[in-house]
Design brief:
Helix 1 runs parallel beside helix 2, helix 3 packs across helix 5 and helix 10 crosses helix 12. The chain has one domain: Luciferase-like domain (TIM Barrel, Alpha-Beta Barrel), CATH 3.20.20. The two termini are 18 Å apart. The radius of gyration is 20 Å and the shape is globular. The strands form four sheets. The protein has an eight-stranded parallel barrel with strand order 1-2-3-4-7-8-10-15, surrounded by seven helices. Strands 9-13-12 form a three-stranded antiparallel beta sheet, covered by helices on one side. A two-stranded antiparallel sheet has the order 5-6. The chain is of the alpha/beta class and 344 residues long.
Length: 344
Amino acid sequence: MERIGFLSFGHWGPGQGSRTRTAGEALLQGIELAVAAEELGVDGAFFRVHHFARQQASPFPLLSAIAARTSRIEIGTGVIDMRYENALYMAEEAAAADLISGGRLQLGISRGSPEPARQGASAFGYAPDPGETDADMARRHTALFRKAVSGAGVAEADPRYAGGATGLLPVQPQSPGLAERIWWGAGSRKTAVWAAEQGMNLMSSTLLTEDTGVPFHELQAEQIRLFRDAWAAAGHRREPRISVSRSVLPIVDAEDSRYFAGSALRDSRDQVGIIDGLTARFGKSYVGEPDRLAEELAADSAVQAADTLLLTVPNQLGVEFNAKLLGTVARHIAPALGWGPSRS
């Protein structure tokens, strides 16, 4: 385990016990938690992107603000739903955020998951072409986005206003190296293989939209193995990055116990359900004393197969609580996985 980071879903609302009651608080607390995480030696600050919900939505202003307040920590998404994106505008925003950060952007994207709005992407102005599925449209947007961040020309120059230039113009700005820091959020073994063939890093979460009957971590470890095999077969020259997400909730005091002790038994096993008509397997939560969690995570075959572990945080409990949670993981759990804090 080379890196650990946090993954925030950016929930906000006036529910009982919420310390993140407004969208403004969710954004400002996201910045402060990233600053605190960097001070702890944590390696990454990642944010989930959802639309039509009381969660983080437009990530680039938030990531840019974090970039301006920090100097080392990676900043990223997990993940952006590409059905909703204008690929060229997103390429401009991503490059700007990456330049502000000095090349620390790690951008997770995917074909998307169920959203509160029916045909929400259509409200944004995007609908599949004839014969396309939503997944096809997301991959079409992804292809154009990756082409744009790679510096390829995407629009015909008008010599009258382009200094006499002809041919295709790239979007500006460009941020060198960003194209190699794009991750695909793969929900199955098949999509992981596709991501490897495309040359994108792999971002795998606590949900896979398939079930073979084996424990979640074993199915996810198989997904990672197939990704690595496909990457090697494709002949890519660089080494890929691979992340997995886990809900890790250490109990070290009465406050932790009040929030999580009741879920320790309920969430300590895999669950199987239906998403978009497909059988899906959900990974368990890790809840309990730090020493026991360290042992359980060390036995998690997918955690061992990845280079990056993203910890989903209960962001509505506020910055102080989540900084404490991350500190507990950094001091008492992650070292057992081979991780050490980064200070440079």
